[in-house]
Amino acid sequence: MPKIKSVYAREILDSRGNPTIETTVWSDNGRGAVASIPSGASIGRLEAFELRDGDPHRFDGLGVLKACANVNQLISKYVVGLDPLRQNDIDQILLNLDGTENKSKLGANAILSVSQACFELGASCAEIPTFEYTAQKYGFATPSPLHLPNPIFNLINGGKHGAGNLDFQEFHCIPSSRKSFSQSLEMASELYHLLKKTLIEKKATSSVGDEGGYAPNLVSNTDAIELLVETIESSPYKLNEDVYLGLDIAATSLYRSNKYKISDIKDPLTGSQFADFLIDLNRKYSLLSIEDPFDQDAWEDWESLTAGLGKQLMIVGDDLLVTNLSRLQEAIKRSACNAILVKPNQIGTISETVSVIKLAKANNFSVIVSHRSGDTDEDFLADFAVGVEADFVKFGAPGRGERVAKYNRLLFIQEYLESLHPTQ
Fold this sequence. Notes:
Strand order of the largest sheet: 4-5-8-11-12-13-14-15
Number of helices: 13
CATH class of the largest domain: Alpha Beta
Distance between the termini: 36 Å
Largest sheet: 8 strands, mixed, barrel
Mean pLDDT: 95
CATH topology of the largest domain: TIM Barrel
Low-confidence stretches: none
């Protein structure tokens, strides 16, 4: 039986140039694993607590030396000597050490860095890929090259991820699930570069947003959707046949004084008026998904939209659910949505994340495993998504290294599985 020999955390930078925590664990049989933790810009009120130093003289207060110290000086004492294959036991020790509901004592970033590193070390000690280890440990189906998660590509970044002129946070192109992952990635890359040409032709000044998509200078959110439609129509692919559209509204960031303010319409909208606007968008563009269409506490609006559109498309809870079991239970009871965005750093341990996924699947929710806007160049989420039989992954645009690392890992997993199952 292998045992954890050492645990060490240090401060590194994420894709936005902000500090984050990276933890390395070693076993006594010479195996090691490293986990670095992402950070979001659009953060749900009930997400697990991300511990920052608050020292204005370092990184504008965003340093994570306290989180590192919690790993090195406290957590390590309880984790060293444990069997890395006993993930649930390790996670329970971490939860007991923290003792708070939202992990505010030690920090969810410190806790997850250890939980994930130990999980990856367990896979290494088991001498199997992390995606296969995930499936075996938690009783999911054996991964198949024909049933990899379908990618959701964020080609236009708005809201807190963009340049500030688009209200909606993400504008998605979603390849048909009939395509293999490699075909989907090829399509997304082609559309990504074609979109850039279209922006240049229209003289729509563009930068690249936090998640690798373009952040163009446009007048309204509808303009951004139309830009994607025009790009697809100028490609060899057919809209709503080869590729579909989706939106991440991130509506909590638009919600002020019980109304939603967007550039498309002059006056602020009530929840029911905003729902009518979204219904009209779906009628016009046949969307495949709408993420966070309302404020994270506007339960009745969520229920109403899901009752009206839930059989046509995915109504995705992110800020509403924050990868939290009790919030998901409430959403199930109220039929508030039909899909969940899963982000391990919203809850803080691998085993808790898996519990949320299992409950979602048991209630016929679509499961979307997602990155964060401030991410790192590791590819763990690709393996994890395959292992838990996620329906979709959302890793950003097919650009920027921290996004591409995850897509390239999925490409490798497809080829690896095809080599094992050449007839599939």
